[in-house]
Amino acid sequence: MVIDLELPQPYSRELSASDFNNDAHAAKYRGEIGRCPEAWLRLFSILNDPENERRLTDAEMHGFPALCGVARFVETDPVISSALADSGSSLRLRQAIGVAIKLKMAKLGWLPTGRKGAVRRSHYFTKAEHYAADSTMYTDAATRALHALDAVAAIGSAEEREETALLLTDALAASRHAEGRPF
């Protein structure tokens, strides 16, 4: 059996509107992008700045939510600040910004922990998600393997998942056989 695999495109750490639109959780906030597209372009620009990427992760390494690292840049941007000041969409916009932070942190190799932390010295944000570096959440090999299988189980259609499972099982059986180990 010959398998023609398409080589993956280079992984990008850049967050874009496309990433936001393609994420199931973020899809609930698509309307926020439509209300003020300029604010979103500016938010993506802030989050994609290499210095701010470092600020996001540094905040977590010092025990603060990632948002703390960039909150002042988000809040002092005149376009984003104006959108946040609009009481009609402020809560929803703040939630959407949190989702954008989640997507950016994922691109940087960090996962949400489910814990919230205080965002101090912020006018619009009071609490935000904490993140953990991917390798710290899954320390043992068995847990990492199960997490990888869960991720694979969510890819593609049912037929594609079944074909992938067969290919993985065949590859595992072959490698175990080559090592003289039972499968």
The helix content is 55-70%
Instruction: Domain count, please report it.
Output: 2
Radius of gyration, in Å, reads: 20 Å
Main-sheet strand order equals 1-2
Low-pLDDT segments: 1-10
- Rounded to the nearest angstrom, the distance between the terminal CA atoms is 21 Å
Rounded mean pLDDT score: 85
Order of helices and strands: HHHHHHHEEHHH
Described by strand count, sense and barrel closure, the largest sheet is: 2 strands, antiparallel
Query: How many H/I helices?
Result: 10
Task: Find the structural class using helix and strand composition.
Answer: mainly alpha
The backbone outline, from C-alpha atoms, is: elongated
Share in β-strands? 5-15%
| Total E-strand runs | 2
Summarize this, please?
The chain is mainly α and 183 residues long. Helices cover 58% and strands 9% of the residues. The chain has a two-stranded antiparallel sheet with strand order 1-2.
Q: Which helices and strands appear, and what pairs or packs with what?
A:
Blueprint (H helix, E strand, L loop, with lengths): L16 H6 L7 H6 L1 H12 L1 H12 L9 H6 L1 H8 L4 H18 L2 E9 L8 E7 H4 L3 H13 L4 H21 L5
Antiparallel strand pairs: 1-2
Helix pairs in contact: 3-7
What does this structure look like?
With 183 residues, the protein is mostly helical. It has 2 domains: 17-135, no CATH class; 141-178. It contains 10 helices and 2 strands. The chain has helices at residues 17-22, 30-35, 37-48, 50-61, 71-76, 78-85, 90-107, 134-137, 141-153, 158-178; strands at residues 110-118, 127-133. Strands 1-2 form a two-stranded antiparallel sheet.
